[in-house]
Design brief:
The longest helix has 17 residues. The protein folds into three domains: about 100 residues, Rossmann fold (3-Layer(aba) Sandwich); about 70 residues, Dna Ligase, domain 1, CATH 3.30.1490.20; about 180 residues, 2-Layer Sandwich (D-amino Acid Aminotransferase, Chain A, domain 1). It is an alpha/beta fold. The radius of gyration is 20 Å and the shape is globular. α5 crosses α6 and α7 packs antiparallel against α9. It starts with a strand and ends with a helix. β11 and β12 form a beta hairpin.
Length: about 375
């Protein structure tokens, strides 16, 4: 029986998980690298352990062990996923694992691997090119159908280096300049990919969220992530609304079956208006920011995982009810920027706020994180951007 959940990583994802786990009467321990986390102020968190660097984390994790694998290890970011994957063989016998097996993680956390796998298995995906040297880039620059996108195979190290999720290039000169900048930063070119640009922005961004076991969905839902910050290549969703698109559901579940997926996963898609198909973008092999939208629909992914480990039989629940999710503070910033640029009408944003919404941070039952989020927001903004 799961008696403790050790949530690795802080901020909004961890806050949502902590509140859901506490509803199950399970102890919540938070492992964070920075004290600047709203989750640590939650009355649902029993204990917070701050570590100074990722090298300290494995030792801290070992201190979370309970007999009979009664501690569930659960990550909220890619770095935590990487550490759990590196130590998977060691931890699997001691803990309940909240991540897929290393083979699946390495497949999907590296976008080069993920896109090649999707294409080989008949899953629609954007056209991609994989340069390994500057010579490859120079040759491709002549042949590519612009505009294109330059993005990393593994995200978190790229963003921490360049402060961006991706770069758009409209011509060969821009492409060469971007890769010269990447090369000058000693960032390996063979961990970068070039991808066709899919136009339309966040209104065409969709996600299939799931807790799956043995490749079969246990709890799932779908959402259209209509606003993100920044709007072009977003670091995080700020407003999402549920939807139900059969094509996305079928393609997501086919992908999960192929690899016998276990764990939480956010399968991201983007609608391509030219081919009129939904194209695969990535799978986040961990909790994602807007996962608490399910609170409005009567289930949660982490609770389903705890039930699975406790041997509680759960029939597949796919929710298609209407609900929205919002991170108000950042979303208002996004709305203001888009309105000032003339790319959004204030009335359009106002209408989205009329829906039943799950707030990312604020809760009357657990008010301190919401208050601290406002007070810490200047520091959080600087640290993130």
């Amino acid at each position: 029986m799961i008696q403790r959940v050790a949530i690795i990583g802080g901020h909004i994802q961890a806050l949502g998980l902590a509140r859901q786990v506490a509803k199950k009467g399970v102890e919540v321990v938070l492992l964070v690298e920075s004290a600047w986390s709203v989750a640590r102020f939650s009355n649902c968190v029993t204990r917070t352990c701050v570590y100074n660097c990722k090298e300290e984390l494995p030792q801290l994790i070992n201190q979370m062990q309970l007999p009979n694998r009664a501690t569930l290890l659960f990550p909220t970011n890619d770095e935590a996923v990487e550490i759990l994957t590196e130590h998977y063989c060691e931890y699997e016998s001691q803990f309940a694992m909240g991540v897929p097996n290393p083979e699946v993680v390495n497949l999907f956390n590296n976008k080069r691997n993920a896109y090649q796998f999707a294409t080989a298995n008949g899953i629609p995906a954007p056209a991609c090119w994989y340069p390994n040297t500057m010579e490859d880039v120079e040759q491709l620059s002549i042949e590519l159908p612009y505009p294109i996108v330059v993005k990393p195979a593994i995200m978190y190290s790229f963003h921490s280096t360049f402060g961006k999720k991706a770069f758009r290039c409209d011509n060969a000169e821009e492409l060469i300049q971007i890769f010269q900048r990447i090369d000058a930063a000693n960032y390996p070119i063979d961990s970068i990919l070039i991808q066709e640009f899919l136009s339309g922005g966040p209104k065409y961004l969709y996600s299939y969220g799931v807790f799956a076991a043995d490749g079969k969905p246990v709890v799932s839902l779908m959402a259209n992530r209509i606003r993100q910050n920044p709007m072009d290549f977003g670091n995080s969703t700020t407003f999402a609304v549920t939807c139900d698109i059969d094509e996305i559901k079928q393609q997501s579940e086919a992908l999960l079956r192929q690899v016998e997926y276990f764990g939480l996963g956010e399968v991201e898609w983007m609608y391509d208006s030219q081919s009129k198909t939904y194209k695969f973008l990535e799978i986040n092999t961990r909790a994602w920011k807007w996962h608490t939208i399910c609170n409005q629909l009567g289930h949660s992914f982490i609770e389903a995982m705890i039930d699975y480990y406790n041997g509680v039989e759960v029939s597949h629940t796919h929710f298609s009810g209407q609900a929205a999710w919002v991170e108000r503070l950042t979303d208002w910033t996004v709305i203001c920027k888009e309105v000032l640029k003339g790319r959004m009408k204030l009335s359009e944003a106002y209408r989205t706020y009329q829906q039943t919404k799950e707030n990312a941070v604020w809760s009357w039952r657990d008010p301190m994180p919401g208050m601290m989020y406002i007070l810490m927001s200047p520091v959080l903004y600087v640290k993130r951007f």
